[in-house]
Give the backbone structure.
Amino acid sequence: MAPDTKERAPAAEVAHMLQNAFIAALEPTHLWIEDESAQHAGHPEARRGGRHVHVRIVSAQFTGKSLVERHRMVYQAVAAHIGREIHAMRVQASSPLEWAPNASDFCTCLLCSRG
Ligand SMILES: [Zn+2]
């Protein structure tokens, strides 16, 4: 897994890695991972290798949890990659009930659109 950090890991590879980690730890029902590195191209840290990502996660594990607790859970799930492949992560974490008002039969998230 991208042992040479001089070369930034491809966005698709990083997204796939995060997806697997989130599925294992949080059992999400919906998941979006968006690479925002291009928006931060001027940052010195960005040039060193870490990517900026925006993740949206819907999981029953967030039910009854505060925003702080949810963010902690999300960061813990990918802790091994923070400061390495990931430089910064923007997080939106919702429980299924919070998400339900926006749900539709046609979801384009990583989980619903695969296969
Ligand atoms: Zn979905």
Q: What stands out?
A: The chain has a mean pLDDT of 86. The chain has four helices and three strands. The pocket of zinc ion is lined by residues 30, 107, 109, 111-112 (CB under 6 Å). Helices lie at 11-26, 44-48, 67-77, 96-99.
